[in-house]
């Protein structure tokens, strides 16, 4: 039997089983969906929306072209990628999942990068949002804001390791046009490239802003659907006992590694939805260093929900998500190893020995809690704006007709 047929039968079987479980346990299905939507409503949407809009505007104003020319020498030498990957890397780091995949797919559609470059780029330019690393995970789940530095550095180091490994994937061919840029006056060329791109995309600012809001909200609505779906699947599998079997296997694996077996069951939710898994691990009675290493691994793996979001975005652009999935496994191990080293270096449990960088933890913690408390209001305001823009454009279209 061919691999294609096996996948067809497997997907069909899984969908039938999921439909049966939803009918058999409707209350659990609805409850799991609502739990996922609450996470999206209060945390994910308000955290990602401003960065998505900003990305759309920066692409429209030619900032991507500017960064592409300026960062060409570094990105080509280190990752064997064009300079625009530097922009994707930075925006992915600031915006969080799945911004890197989204920007990569958009640049590929606009023929700024090749298919091979896009697939390698997507494998290491997706990050957890800094607000999630410092605020939700470190300050919220662990009640120890100083851990945010460890989570962030280990997460970024893990992704950089993925990028260095993916450097050797693909054909190895390089664009002659991009090589030629290196000998020119790079900064002035970058400014000129940005100006030419803005002229090419010339539109009224209101139109640009409206397009940015609509595109960002559409992406975030799809993300909300994935979060709700995988939250529901997790709760249904928990109800039928499938999660218990998996947690027993993971407990044995953690025991073999010399870690607390209780981490095994706590990790299971994180395989489906990252936020829930991080919370469960933080609540265990395992030593702090073991919880930090485990959460760093989960942040690298990022959960099936986020992986499905990125895969859907890439597939819509005609890109394969194979390297992205491989990258998540590599990052999981690299981030865990980096967290182990960084934990001993920073010693976050000893306030008297913390590096100077931790003096900012209290103001940052206050900012995070203030932002999180208004997350639902931000979501409501943005959705109302989104609806208003759609109504106005529909009315203008009818008037023109």
What does this 3D model show about the protein?
With about 400 residues, the chain is mainly α. The chain has one domain. Helices cover about 80% and strands about 0% of the residues. It has 20 helices and no strands. Helix 12 crosses helix 17, helix 12 crosses helix 20 and helix 13 packs across helix 14. The chain is globular and about 60 Å long.
**How many structurally independent domains?**
1
Residue share in β-strands: under 5%
Oligomer: single chain
- Coarse shape: globular
The parts where pLDDT drops under 50 for at least 5 residues are 175-184, 351-361
- Category by helix and strand content: mainly alpha
Query: Helix amount, in percent?
Result: over 70%
User: What's the order of the H and E elements?
Assistant: HHHHHHHHHHHHHHHHHHHH
Mean pLDDT: 80
How widely separated are the two ends? 55 Å
List the total number of helices. Answer: 20
Describe the main β-sheet briefly: none
> How many strand elements?
0
In short:
This is Sporulation integral membrane protein YlbJ. The chain has helices at 3-24, 26-60, 63-70, 72-79, 84-95, 99-109, 115-122, 130-141, 147-166, 176-181, 186-200, 205-240, 242-256, 263-272, 274-283, 288-301, 303-316, 322-346, 361-373, 375-400. 80% of the residues lie in helices and 0% in strands.
Topology, pairings included?
Layout: H1 3-24, H2 26-60, H3 63-70, H4 72-79, H5 84-95, H6 99-109, H7 115-122, H8 130-141, H9 147-166, H10 176-181, H11 186-200, H12 205-240, H13 242-256, H14 263-272, H15 274-283, H16 288-301, H17 303-316, H18 322-346, H19 361-373, H20 375-400
Helix pairs in contact: 1-2, 2-12, 2-20, 3-5, 3-11, 5-6, 6-7, 6-17, 8-9, 8-19, 9-16, 9-18, 12-17, 12-20, 13-14, 14-15, 14-16, 15-16, 16-18
């Amino acid at each position: 039997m061919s691999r294609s047929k096996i996948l067809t039968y497997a997907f069909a079987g899984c969908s039938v089983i999921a439909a049966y479980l939803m009918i058999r346990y409707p209350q659990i299905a609805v409850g799991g969906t609502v739990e996922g939507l609450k996470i999206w409503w209060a945390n994910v949407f308000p955290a990602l929306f401003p960065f998505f809009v900003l990305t759309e505007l920066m692409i429209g104003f030619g900032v991507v072209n500017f960064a592409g020319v300026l960062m060409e020498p570094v990105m080509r030498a280190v990752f064997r990628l064009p300079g625009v990957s530097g922009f994707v890397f930075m925006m992915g780091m600031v915006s969080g999942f799945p911004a890197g995949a989204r920007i990569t797919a958009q640049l590929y559609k606009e023929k700024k990068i090749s298919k091979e470059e896009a697939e390698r780029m997507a494998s290491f330019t997706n990050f957890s949002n800094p607000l999630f690393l410092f605020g939700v995970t470190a300050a919220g789940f662990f009640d120890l804001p100083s851990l945010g530095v460890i989570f962030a550095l280990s997460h970024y180091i893990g992704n950089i390791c993925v990028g260095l490994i993916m450097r050797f994937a693909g054909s190895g061919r390089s664009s002659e046009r991009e090589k030629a840029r290196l000998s020119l006056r790079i900064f002035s060329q970058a400014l000129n490239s940005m100006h030419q791109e803005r002229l090419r995309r010339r539109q009224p600012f209101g139109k640009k802003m409206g397009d940015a809001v609509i595109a960002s909200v559409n992406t975030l609505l799809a993300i909300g659907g994935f979060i709700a779906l995988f939250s529901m699947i997790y709760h249904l599998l928990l109800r039928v006992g499938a999660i218990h079997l998996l947690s027993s296997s993971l407990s044995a694996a953690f025991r073999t590694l010399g870690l607390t077996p209780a981490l095994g069951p706590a990790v299971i939710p994180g395989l489906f939805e990252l936020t829930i898994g991080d919370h469960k691990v933080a609540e265990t009675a395992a030593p702090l260093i073991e919880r930090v290493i485990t959460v760093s691994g989960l942040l690298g793996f990022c959960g099936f929900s986020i992986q499905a979001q990125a895969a859907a975005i890439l597939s819509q652009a005609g890109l394969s998500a194979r390297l992205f999935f491989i990258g998540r496994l590599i990052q999981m191990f690299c981030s865990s190893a980096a967290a182990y080293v960084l934990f001993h270096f920073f010693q976050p449990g000893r306030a008297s020995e913390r590096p100077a960088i931790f003096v900012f933890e209290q103001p940052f913690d206050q900012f995070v809690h203030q932002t999180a408390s208004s997350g639902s209001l931000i979501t409501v305001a943005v959705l109302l704006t989104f609806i208003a823009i759609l109504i106005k454009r529909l009315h203008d279209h009818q008037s023109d007709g």
